[in-house]
Amino acid sequence: MSTALEIRNLDKAYVAGKPVLRGINLSIEGNGITAIIGPSGTGKSTLIRCINRLVEPTSGEILFEGKDLVKLNRAELRAARSRIGMVFQEYNLVERLSVMENLLTGTLGKTPALKAFFRRFDPDDIRRAWEMLEVVGLTGFANARADSLSGGQRQRVGISRAVMQHPALLLADEPTSSLDPKTSVEIMELLARISDSKGIPVIINMHDVDLAKRFASRIIGMSGGHVVYDGGADGLTDEVLKSIYGGEGWLQ
Amino acid sequence: MGTPENPVREWQRFTLTEKLGRFTVYFAIVAAVAWAAHSVEIIEEFIWDAPAQVADMGKRMWPIAWDYFKPGILNPLLETLNIAAVSTLLGILMAVPVGFLAARNATPNKFINMVARLILVATRSVNTLLWALFFVAVFGPGALAGTLAIAFHSIGFIGKLFSEAVEDAQKGSLEALSAAGASPLQLIQYGYWPQVKPTFWAIALFRWDINVRESAVLGLVGAGGLGMALDTAINLFQWDRVALVLVTIFAVVIVAEVIVTQIRKKLI
Amino acid sequence: MSSPAPSFTPVPAHVPAHVRPFQSSWLARAGWLLLFIYLVYAMASLDFSWTRFVAGLEHGAKFISRMFPPDFTRWDLLVKGMAESLQMAVLASFIGVIISLPLGLLAARNLMPGFITWPVRVIIIACRSYNPVIVAIVAVKAVGFGALAGIIALTVASVGFVAKLFAEAIEEISMKQIEAVRATGASFGGVVIFGVLPQVMFRFIGFAAYETDANLRNSTLVGIVGAGGIGGTLFAAFQRFDYDFVFAIVLTIIALIMLGELLQIGVKKVFRQ
Predict the structure, then answer these.
(1) Domain range holding A39?
(2) Is A1 touching C (CB cutoff 8 A)?
(3) Domain B68-267: assigned CATH number
(4) Residue C196 exposed, middle or buried by CB count within 10 Å (0-12, 13-18, 19+)
(5) pLDDT per residue as tens digits for the range B81-91
(6) Domain boundary assignment for chain B
(7) Do residues A213 and A152 share a domain?
(8) Where are the alpha helices (DSSP H) in A29-138?
(9) pTM (2 d.p.)
């Protein structure tokens, strides 16, 4: 299986001398769900955001589709970003726009701004958008305003938006942290289905270890800015979890 | 919205009625602008001459007559600031009761409500300068006319914003107070006032900021303040002094801006 | 034996501060006191005399009686003046609003770097500092008497108002939505159109409507200094003591503004999102 994403020696320090990420080395395969777990503040979110450079890495290389993302200029970065879909913890939908418009936001990487203004999107994209709505079960909501939806529905729109980009890689930053347990499972199932059917690798940041064990084929544990565990769900013994999170109380 | 075998594959942002409404508005705007552009009387030669005129004026304004500040500007400036403060206070005092009466949820009597709203519209429509002309004719030139002019003009604005804030007040706390047996006055004090207070201060500051600028102009019609110094300088073609007044106004506006921002931070 | 009625004991004054819930801080009280003193001083310095006020009231009564009934006989002059004012207001609003859209975007500190926002903000403050009448005086000197000067003055005032409020509205938007649109690889134009504008367009329309109303009112004024419109007619009538004609003009202005307000409400309904 080919490598979809390769991270080499990634460092990130928001304040000089206090690195948040220290020499991260990772190689992500071209399919399946990879979950990144670890305590708050350990750099999980920073790592994910460095990949599409919403946060600028301090040093290191990120190889994706034959290019080092860290070295790209603005235009090339935009092209690369259109190949990477992202799902956010707080959905980050454009609240005042309709569900359909939010989906079509995913095509902005290739739709010229003027056409987007007049809402003249590629009919092919519109067809795909309708199909996507069916897949996530939101067909009747196409013209509903995004802020009229529930949390789970909004996240489904967020995921649809990311998939609309035809991405080669899907990033998810704590996608279920704002949702109740039942909806969280539904969202994870959706992500798993998409990863399977479209053959896209998915990297998910999460704090719910049980969900990670259940859905991810590979789990990366981070602590103090380092990768301290890299393997399958079975290798996640209590000992390992203690070394990642510290403390025992929560393991009961 | 289509059948499972023949699903709809297009998408429209607006329904037909919405499109019609939007189109009508666009059309009306374009028609209005076209009519205005076509029928307005502009003498073209003046446009071409304008850069030369502006350059000439610029030359006359430089160097700015700084030495004129103490003798000719300082007192009118203080008068302008005082007019702004007092007129805002007066305007608030007059506007609050009218604004209250104009709010649909606070006054059940429809007739009084309508009269109050009419007062608000009328005072707003008559410009400060027009009010100033009137008060100068009645009370003679000077700061009294200016203060009353700004105060009366402000009634409309303060009153409208205030009545909107009152109408927005949540019914819940009002019902609770009524149920506990509060008198109308107590209802106002403990029910409406706490909810309206932040908006009230925002309106007061906003209006004071505008009134500072309005009071600078009143002197043009003899109602006191910096405007009189400006008027004199213009009539005597002393453009360097005109420049001084303009710079003073700019400085005052910036200082007022800073004050307002600081107070807003503390209050909100 | 009936139980005694519950009594209410007021909180005594020597109870410490944290037990008295409605006590305001001494800082706030000092602020109030200062404000009060200033206002008293300001009123005193403005030289109000009671006799003057009373004399004025009498004068005012005579004045008002001369305004009734309003004189509409010279309606052709009235219409011509109002038409010109309307033209000036429409054009100035249109041009002003169009300029304000990009200007407001450039002035937004969360979208643009400092070396762009700073000069743009200074320009906007300069436009806002001056009452349209003052700008009209300068404009008359530059481009001569007539409607052009009025349009320039009103446009400057519009830009100062709409661009400032628009920039403030943009600075208040949620950056999270912007982040998401950026992550899709959208161009700057795409981010503005799909991330910024949906959040602020409704408020922008409100500002534009308010400013058009303000221009309508100001357009009746700038004529006083020769910049075209009904203001000139009104000022001339005033100086000729034709107070009944003045009243007729004022009534027409009020009517026009009320009409404008109704239209405004209609437009807002259509564009409600």
Answers:
(1) 1-83+170-252
(2) no
(3) 1.10.3720.10
(4) buried
(5) 888 888 898 89
(6) 68-267
(7) no
(8) 44-51, 74-81, 99-105, 113-117, 123-136
(9) 0.78
